[in-house]
Amino acid sequence: MKKYPQILALSATCIALPAAAITAEQSAFFDSIAAHCGKAYEGTVIGATSADSSFSGKKLVMHVRECSDNELKVPFHVGDDHSRTWVITKTQHGLHLAHDHRHKDGSEDKVTMYGGMTAMMGSATEQSFPVDAYSINNFRENGLDVSVTNVWHMYIKPTEFTYRLTRENRDFRVDFDLTKPVDLPPVPWGHK
Questions:
Q1: Which of 59, 83, 135, 138 shows the smallest number of beta carbons within 10 Å?
Q2: Quick check: is 11 in a domain?
Q3: pLDDT averaged over the chain?
Q4: Got the DSSP string for 101-142?
Q5: The predicted structure's pLDDT at residue 54
Q6: Residue 138 phi, psi (nearest 5)
Q7: DSSP run (H or E) holding 179
Q8: What is the mean pLDDT of residues 161-175?
Q9: Which helix (DSSP H) or strand (DSSP E) does residue 87 occupy?
Q10: Using an 8 Å Cβ cutoff, are 31 and 158 in contact?
Q11: CATH of the domain at 92
């Protein structure tokens, strides 16, 4: 059997290469959110359905609270419920979105850190995060089979930030007005 040293050398080279870094579009998107670090903004649910009743009549505030070169923590406050924090992380494979859910005593909810990784480069103003395997397993273990096709989307423009969740029969969206910072909300549950 004849050996092909060029192919073997090429294969070894490919294996040694690092995984792809985030794209310029993803980096610009991340930086656009980070530019609001330390500020909070009020939001409005757009096109609410009965599935979104827990958000009606409550003040909705996002707070770009913790920012580093590789991670953003953005608590999403719903009235007096301070249990939710979006965690956006730069990875070698793109941006990752996780939903950190806590109880009032700071302990983790059994459905927490779910989310997904960007599957495409997106743009400087829009990124989508299809549900990942960890989240699918977590949803199934907790009787949330309806969530196994979730896709989360975030959009940022100079005047507006949007958080959106889509799946079959569900399109939940909150638009936040970036032109009017509001008073900072309390520390989210489970954070210092």
A1: 59
A2: no
A3: 90
A4: EB-TTSPBPSS-SEEEE-SS---SSEEEEEBPHHHHHHHHHT
A5: 82
A6: -65, -45
A7: strand 170-182
A8: 94
A9: strand 81-91
A10: no
A11: 2.40.128.20
The three-state secondary structure class of 13 is helix
| Strand pairing report for 170-182 and 40-46 | antiparallel
- Residue 85 is assigned to a structural domain of this protein: yes
Average of pLDDT values for 81-107? 97
| Beta-carbon contacts of residue 137 (< 8 Å; ≥ 6 apart) | none
What domain range is 73 assigned to?
20-180
Q: What are phi and psi of 72, to 5 degrees?
A: -120, 135
How many separate helices (H) and strands (E) can be counted in the chain?
Answer: 3, 11
The structure tokens 């196994």 sit at 148
> How many C-beta neighbours within 10 Å does residue 22 have?
21
Q: Are the C-beta atoms of 162 and 181 separated by less than 8 Å?
A: no
Domain count of the fold of the chain: 1
Residue 36 burial (CB count, 10 A): 20
- pTM of structure: 0.88
Q: Is 27 exposed, middle or buried (0-12, 13-18, 19+ CB in 10 A)?
A: middle
Asked if residue 186 is part of any domain, the answer here is no
User: Residue 191: inside a domain, yes or no?
Assistant: no
Rounded Cα gap, residues 44 and 46, in angstroms:
6
Answer whether residue 6 shows pLDDT above 70.
Answer: no
